């Protein structure tokens, strides 16, 4: 049967061909017999295979010599999606504009408070909202069907967002001397973990957008309307409130761990 298959015998039934090919996938001895049979029964096919191998060998050698670049290209989509680039750029632009306003002119609508401070806790949510979005990721269906989809992939992409946003805020706060990491870093991590925890119930994008809307309604809108720092901002970002943010971070992290099996079905 292998000899007939190697010659391309058209009299073999289709179901027999299918069974033979399925067997060859799992049987190394029969694949060896097929290779020997092709060399004797179909020399033209053997010559074609040799020609293709000879033309591919230089490319294969080059691929082996430079594996790191190819590995990086393959692993990049597991950390960032192409659609996240404009979202991260927008987040960086918002941070830069706030820092420039703080450095060039004193903000009149926030008194002596840096305009970066009310924005910093929710800035990572812009990227988190885009990290696992069906509408924003054109390859979402393919990505969601992979074995590593779910919480591991979501955590990678969230980490990529934080690696972009947090250093920018740290450098900006250090250059301007207006805000310290203690004022916004813990609230920012608490918001991010809460978005992931709520995302296991209503979806990550909805959770992130909802938290941003709630923060804006409680802090940013009153600041703009009253022309001063809202009491809620002073209350929430005071140094003695950091244990509360830490507790929220711990509870949200525990919720993410407890509901880790729900993320592949988001």
TrEMBL record:
Give the transmembrane region(s): 79-101, 113-133, 154-175, 181-202, 209-230, 242-258
Q: Which UniProt keywords apply?
A: Membrane, Transmembrane, Transmembrane helix
Q: What is this protein called?
A: Zf-HC2 domain-containing protein
From which organism does this entry originate? Kitasatospora misakiensis
* Classification lineage: Bacteria, Bacillati, Actinomycetota, Actinomycetes, Kitasatosporales
């Amino acid at each position: 049967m292998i000899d007939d298959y190697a010659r391309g015998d058209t009299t073999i039934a289709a179901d027999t061909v299918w069974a033979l090919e399925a067997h060859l996938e799992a049987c190394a001895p029969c694949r060896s017999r097929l290779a020997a049979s092709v060399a004797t029964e179909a020399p033209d096919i053997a010559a074609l295979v040799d020609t293709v191998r000879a033309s591919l060998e230089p490319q294969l050698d080059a691929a082996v010599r430079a594996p790191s670049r190819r590995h990086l290209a393959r692993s990049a989509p597991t950390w960032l999606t192409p659609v996240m680039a404009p979202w991260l750029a927008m987040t960086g632009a918002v941070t830069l504009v706030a820092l420039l306003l703080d450095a060039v002119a004193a903000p009149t609508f926030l008194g002596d408070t840096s305009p970066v401070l009310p924005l910093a806790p929710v800035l990572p949510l812009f990227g988190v909202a885009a990290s696992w979005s069906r509408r924003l990721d054109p390859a979402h269906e393919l990505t969601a069907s992979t074995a590593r989809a779910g919480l591991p992939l979501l955590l990678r992409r969230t980490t990529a967002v934080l690696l972009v946003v947090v250093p920018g805020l740290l450098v900006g706060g250090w250059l301007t001397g207006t805000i310290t990491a203690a004022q916004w870093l813990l609230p920012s991590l608490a918001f991010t973990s809460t978005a992931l925890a709520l995302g296991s119930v209503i979806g990550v994008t909805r959770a992130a957008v909802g938290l941003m809307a709630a923060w804006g309604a409680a802090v940013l809108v009153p600041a703009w309307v009253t022309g001063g720092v809202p009491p809620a901002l002073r209350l929430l970002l005071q140094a003695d409130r950091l244990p509360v943010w830490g507790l929220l971070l711990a509870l949200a992290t525990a919720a993410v761990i407890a509901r880790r099996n729900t993320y592949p079905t988001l």
